[in-house]
Design a protein that fits this description.
The protein is an alpha+beta fold and 260 residues long. Helices cover 55% and strands 12% of the residues. A four-stranded antiparallel beta sheet has the order 2-1-4-3. Helix 1 packs across helix 10. The protein is extended. The protein starts with a helix and ends in a 5-residue tail after the last helix.
């Protein structure tokens, strides 16, 4: 494959789309900078934290790939800048914010969030060792054994820290049972499950799970999400004038970019 052909194909398939996105980002960020509402790193961090609180899986790929995380943060920065430009001169009273929160509580409800640490072992002796090590607490009642230390133990294979359970190779009934047990276990609890015996003698036979965090679903207090509710309330007020789309169209027309 000739490198030029490869680059030409990329340009044909995605070049215009990528270029348009880059131009729109530059237009929005420049306008936000001039208006004094350019997003800060802290605002981007808060937006990502809000997304994580409601849907941790949405950030799984980005957390594992620095490039994807950089691109995601850039998208968040552009979104926040466009929103800030749209609501720059829009105000919302405390009463309006409270009423909006009550009416749209579902949009701010966090689902049950469970985080686990899991270790695979090949026999009941190693499984018992994993259960004992993962159950050990320090003087402050915190787990003594983190994933890195546990992974260095002989014959223990740490699957890792995960925000969701996805064992496609297991029978459906077993997957459901494990998920139900995890959902009901309090933070800090540890339990072991015997896995189906496979044809390969080296396949793991036991799975030990520690509940790192188990937060129930629920609507947060307004104080916890007031900044997000305030922004959403003010954005809702701009819908009659086109909201963020209207702002973007106006900025694009004013910039009048040229593609050569």
């Amino acid at each position: 494959v000739v490198l030029k052909d490869y680059r030409d194909m990329l340009d044909v398939q995605a070049g215009r789309q990528v270029l348009t996105k880059m131009v729109l980002r530059k237009i929005v960020l420049n306008a936000a900078q001039k208006a004094g509402v350019a997003p800060t790193k802290e605002e981007v961090d808060r937006r990502l934290a809000f997304i994580y609180r409601r849907n941790p899986q949405a950030l799984t790929a980005a957390n594992q790939d620095p490039v994807k995380m950089r691109l995601l943060r850039e998208d968040m920065e552009t979104d926040i800048a466009l929103e800030s430009l749209t609501i720059k001169d829009v105000k919302a009273s405390d009463a309006e914010i409270m009423a909006f929160f009550r009416k749209n509580a579902a949009a701010f409800t966090a689902p049950q969030q469970t985080q686990t640490m899991m270790a695979l072992t090949g026999n009941d002796v190693d499984a018992a060792t994993a259960q004992r090590l993962m159950s050990a607490k320090d003087a402050k009642g915190q787990p003594q054994m983190d994933a890195g230390t546990l992974a260095r133990q002989p014959r223990l294979k740490v699957v890792g820290v995960s925000a969701n359970l996805n064992f496609n190779a297991l029978p459906e009934a077993m997957r459901t049972d494990i998920q139900n047990r995890v959902a009901k276990q309090p933070t800090g609890s540890v339990f072991t499950v015997a896995l189906p015996k496979g044809s390969n003698p080296d396949d793991p036979r036991f799975l030990t799970i520690r509940i790192e965090r188990n937060a129930p679903a629920g609507v947060p207090n307004l104080a916890e999400v007031k900044a997000e509710v305030d922004r959403a309330c003010r954005l809702a007020k701009t819908q009659a004038e086109g909201g963020t789309i209207g702002t973007l169209v106006r900025l694009y027309r004013e910039a009048n970019p040229r593609f050569e």
